[in-house]
């Protein structure tokens, strides 16, 4: 195993010494409830195993007493043998049950956290980083999944010492008292171990997450790195936290070593004290030789810190991972609406919309109306918030203030499925999701018909490119290398194929050659479009084909008018680099 850092404070991390945040505790309980039957069975099997382990010394002691007295002891020897066999069977069952419970809990946690990550959208990657999220979903979910089984195992492991003390008390109350005198010390030792282990493991996992985030960033930017010739520097950057991991590992060993050293000092002393008192009682004839044998075994069970240390360390690792998953779940995701979207022409309205990003107000009380069925181009200088406006229009993000309405209904209130059917998006760098090219173009809440996919591909001028592929529409996405323009054409085809009353193109024509752009915009702005179209445009030719243009400046709409009207203004022409602003 591995563990920790005392490196730079992580903004995501809660105070390192908390055993479990309330949210992580709730998540652990939910995972326990989810694996209810398996965990209950595991608990029962583990308790049965502990009970069998507790019975064994008594049975052995009884057999020994009978043998020493020359009485027949066959039945007790047989019982002892049966108990040993039973212990083997129960251990095997516990192994199977804990493996199954771990797997089920990990799968449940992964589904939960993946759903949350996708519900958060871009905010998830902004907050945690894509690599760190992958580390949480893969490694941490597997570790957190062991939590329910670890809790069950710990409960059962606690029953051993408790049962040992009770059994000692049954032999002679003074034996139990000797042991209980040292119990607070052992309890303190275990508590410190659990706390320190959780803190250590949590730190370790955070450093791992940072490395994963840096690696994902480097992989995403591999072309820039290769072009800049900085591979060595990047390797060093990704691996920079290694010394922290090393320190963490050492700290972990130190914590466990210290606990083990204290345990080996305290536990044998207590066992010795119990055996000494039992020996004294034997000399006084108050206990038998068999009792002495049983007492010595029960003393070992009652001071069984070794098993508890192992179980506690496993639980601490699981809990540190649970805490990292709980951090992701704690991010507030936009709540899906509940209202159906009534039929309408696709009238889009932004009322007093304000969006803040990176400490700055990007859109500042912006108002805009796009009448249903019309095409509006949004233009503005780089960084004025055009993409944010596009994201708001289709509720890929929510405004910090103000409201976005589609056909009079706030998009935040509209049912998720209705909204996704009503709004189609195409992006500058579309992600093609699905196994084949056909899947990638059909990708959406409801799959369009094949005819629709084909005609959408023709409109987006993607058909010729697809037909040239080795297996046409059945070509695997992984086997279809694409240029930026080809990717954009497939992304456009996907948006066209899904229909809906509002089509949003966020810079989705930027990589098309001018001939293709001409054909696509003709289809887009030609008769029979019907739906409302919102286009983020950088080219004057694209803006000129729209019904009107919204000119963004300073977080607001400076003007809305047809392109030829706005073109008279030199400031507007300057947006397209046509003229130096006055
Ligand atoms: N998640 C974010 N965190 C911080 N700043 C952000 C975030 N998203 C957007 N911004 C900032 O908001 C501003 C507007 O971004 P947006 O992408 O909407 O601009 P744009 O007008 O589409 O630009 P371009 O024409 O260059 O594509 C930019 O300054 C950008 O840096």
Automatic annotation (TrEMBL):
Residues 348-579 form the ABC transporter domain. It is found in: Cell membrane. It comes from the Bacteria. GO terms for cellular component: plasma membrane. Its main location: membrane. It is a multi-pass membrane protein. SMART domains: AAA (SM00382). Keywords: ATP-binding, Membrane, Nucleotide-binding, Transmembrane, Transmembrane helix. It holds the Pfam family ABC_membrane. The chain crosses the membrane at residues 39-60, 80-101, 149-171, 177-194, 259-283, 295-314. One of its GO terms (molecular function) is ATP binding. InterPro entries: AAA+_ATPase, ABC1_TM_dom, ABC1_TM_sf, ABC_transporter-like_ATP-bd, P-loop_NTPase, Type_1_exporter. Residues 40-304 form the ABC transmembrane type-1 domain. This is ABC transporter ATP-binding protein. The lineage of its organism: Bacteria, Bacillati, Actinomycetota, Actinomycetes, Kitasatosporales.
